[in-house]
């Protein structure tokens, strides 16, 4: 894609998908909000702290989504053996400025789809978007951190790609039951963390 111009990003950007992308359907909209314009006016932020929106003209990339003005907002391109997803604005900056973003936003579906397209595999999956998994492993075992970013208790399911021989609660040493499909039911307190030792 070629850069045509850029401007200070507006306080709100709504993108509408022009085609299906994984579990995101054509016509679905995602809205992002930021304080960038008010901060620019009142605080005179340094140049490198202002958020910009770039106007791109696709050359070989597909337009996945457009903004509320009809400009390309998310582009997808395949080049060589790789895949490139381009946002015309700092999406993580916008997400970090949105209250209760974890309750409403579905940007995680974009990341999930990109991981699937790149055939990235994880040894364990979680069915809840507000739960983060951290993995530290060796050849024969790993420590699995399950972190609840929700401000309320929740129940979730962990699914192992390959059935482990043993799963133990790392804190209390108790053995954890696995289903025949390699699943573990987990209860997490609000903002809670559980740690499991997994023997492969």
Description:
The chain is 14% helix and 42% strand. The protein has helices spanning 36-43, 91-96, 101-104, 108-117, and strands at residues 2-8, 12-17, 29-33, 52-57, 62-66, 72-79, 82-87, 124-126, 131-137, 141-148, 154-160, 166-169, 183-188, 193-199. A hairpin with a 5-residue loop joins strand 5 and strand 6 (72-79).
Features:
Immunoglobulin-like, 14 strands, five-stranded antiparallel β-sheet, four-stranded antiparallel β-sheet, Rossmann fold, mainly beta, 200 residues, 4 helices
State the CATH class of the largest domain. Alpha Beta
Helix-strand makeup class: mainly beta
Q: What is the mean pLDDT? A: 86
- Which sequence of SSEs, written as H and E, runs from N to C? EEEHEEEEHHHEEEEEEE
Helix content: 10-25%
What is the number of beta strands? Answer: 14
- For the termini, the CA-CA separation is 44 Å
CA radius of gyration is 21 Å
Q: SSE layout and pairings?
A:
Layout: E1 2-8, E2 12-17, E3 29-33, H1 36-43, E4 52-57, E5 62-66, E6 72-79, E7 82-87, H2 91-96, H3 101-104, H4 108-117, E8 124-126, E9 131-137, E10 141-148, E11 154-160, E12 166-169, E13 183-188, E14 193-199
Antiparallel strand pairs: 1-4, 2-3, 2-5, 5-6, 6-7, 8-11, 9-10, 10-14, 11-13, 12-14
Structure in a nutshell:
The chain folds into 2 domains: 2-117, Rossmann fold (3-Layer(aba) Sandwich); 124-199, Immunoglobulin-like.
